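Lab meeting notes turned into a lecture example. A postdoc, R.K., suggested we walk through two folding results consecutively so the class can see how the record format repeats. The first protein's sequence and structure tokens come next.
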Amino acid sequence: MTDVLTDDSALAEPVAMPADLPDLNPETDDQDREEIDEADDQESDDEADDGLVEYEAADGKTYRVPAEVKDGLMIKAEFTRKTQEMAEVRKAIAARDEAVQKTAQRQAEFANDIAQLGALNARLTPFAQVQDWPSYLRQGGAAAQADYVEYQAMVNERDQFAHSLGQKVQQRAFDEQRETVEAIEAGRAELAKHIKGYSPAKLDELVAFAEPLGFSPDEIRQAEADPRSIRVLHLAAIGQQALTRQSTTQKLVKQQAIQPAVKVSGSAPAAKSPERMSTDEWMRFRNAQVRKAR
């Protein structure tokens, strides 16, 4: 068995500490923490000064992009918006032109139909001289029979054309009414994009605003088919309201400027101290005291 010997002199020598052992001095720890925090702050500043700026895209998301890229994106977004607005304007103008052309075509067709009906009636004019067809047929023989056949054929042709024309007029009126309703619905949808809170109540307000200007309620309500007219009328109403508020404010300012100062009834002027009185004032003050003492 081997005995274990303890060397007191060896125990007395200092033990070498590892080089990577952290310093346990509190002051040193605080200093290290400050340096770490400063390094983090510097890193954050570097990130903030990295030349990137925030840009909110059309989808609502925010991105960090270079400043020059943001300018380009904003210009592109503005160009896109203007392009869309111009496309809407061109679409509205095209729809309006199409409606005008369709209306003009219908009017031309109707005028042509009326002319044909007039021509058919004109062909019947010579037969209007016959007051009594039975007598004319008995006395006129074969010629009268031929006239009557021709007359009946013309009357049937005229009546059939007139009946067809009546049906066409009814269908045309129905189509125009349907197209007007569709145009008004499309106009309301378009107006809702540009006028906040657009509704029948808002239209009633515009009707009330336009009526003193000489527009009838039907004219304003039918104008929904052309949203441009309602938008212009809406802007005019806003301008009128602004002018009214400005005029009211100016009147109030003028009234306040010329309004006299309010005096409290029953209040006596503050008495002046005897030390500040002149000789005459002090004499009057003293005489008044004497009179009160008597």
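The second example is placed directly after the first for contrast:
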Amino acid sequence: MNFDDYCQQKAAPPGSSTYYALRQASVARQPLIAALFALRRELEETAKETSDPTIGRTKLAWWQKELAAFAEGNASHPVTQALAKHLPDPRAEYPALQTLVAGFEMDLDQARYLDFANLRRYIDGVGGAFAALIARVSANEPGDAARWSVPLGNALMLAQFVPEIGNDARHGRIYVPIDELQRYNVTAADLINRRYSDAFTELMQFQTARARDALYAALDAMPAAERRAQRTLRAQAALSLALLDEIERERFQVLHQQIVLTPIRKLWIAWRAARRA
């Protein structure tokens, strides 16, 4: 298996939302964008799926060293080899890649967040920083990409928290700030033990509305001149909005199950979103 195939399978297995969003990018850009998504997935698995934090830190430290070697032209992992091949200037993106690693490192140090301002640091690192990477490699004006892509990446993270709230809680992580749980009279134990209530429904209505509003605002802020080049991010946003709608229709039954869109719906939503003016 060559490194491009490895990245494709790691980042976007057939039927996944990423698979359909990635397919909206130009053929020339798809290998690079797939490599960036694959790196994000590698870091996410290391931070969230490693039961021992010490092992997780060791693995993330290895990634920091590997990215430093990549910046110097000595990549050894299939993902960094793909990035080295497809990124025009690896050294230029090295600081952004370090930011992404540091963002996921927070998952090893912190499982709860006092308030939204505290959570925002995490969202900026794993959401906004990643979207800026994706945007820059396709943007007509890369220097301006962070201005509008970081809010979109943050909005995508907020949307991701909604369907994953039950799964995250069972793995010891709660991305709903403590003060918001208290405001709606929902406890961490309620989430972990899958206890539904009117209070939980109200909490999820708030979380969903915030994510939806942030997605629409970020999409509206994307410059018209960049919309065609940013088909992958636009498709991701459309898929997230559709999933939020589906979860709302299902009355936020996300503590005991994963609510997903069917592959054919994903295909249609991503294709349509990428081609809207």
